[in-house]
Amino acid sequence: MADKSELFPGTLDMLILRVLSRGELHGWGITNKLEQLSKSALQVDEGSLYPSLYRMEEKGWIEAEWRMTENNRRAKYYSLTRTGRKQLEHEQALWDRMSAIITLVTQSA
């Protein structure tokens, strides 16, 4: 089980942006999708998720809207902005580069 404290700094933001690039979701939907995509290896708690969402909303990477869920409950739905898509592309490029460097070093050691 992993949470933000076990991820590289900034990784949770990138993962959330990636999930939201597939469509808008509420907080529980985001955590559920992250768990599903990671085959339960990543479980993000509310104490990590919501500060990340609020920070990204302040930066203009995502926007939020209160709506009713399919269960007739009020929830804040998050969606990616144009700035957020650009940030995701930037974060993904940095991740790909760093992953390649780490792979080179660990395979040659």
What keyword list fits this structure?
alpha+beta, Arc Repressor Mutant, subunit A, 109 residues, 4 helices, 3 strands, three-stranded antiparallel sheet, disordered N terminus, single chain
CATH architectural arrangement:
Orthogonal Bundle
- Proportion of beta-strand residues: 5-15%
Write the CATH fold name: Arc Repressor Mutant, subunit A
CATH homologous superfamily title: Winged helix-like DNA-binding domain superfamily/Winged helix DNA-binding domain
Helices, by number, come to 4
The number of domains is: 1
Helix coverage percent: 55-70%
N-to-C SSE series? HEHHEEH
What is the C-alpha radius of gyration, as a whole number of Å? 15 Å
Number of strands: 3
Mean pLDDT: 92
Please list the strands of the largest sheet in the order they lie side by side.
1-3-2
Question: Kindly, what is the distance between the CA atoms of the first and last residues, rounded to a whole number of angstroms?
Answer: 29 Å
Outline type: globular
Low-confidence stretches: 1-5
Highest CATH level, the class: Mainly Alpha
Structural class of the secondary structure composition? alpha+beta
How does the major sheet shape up? 3 strands, antiparallel
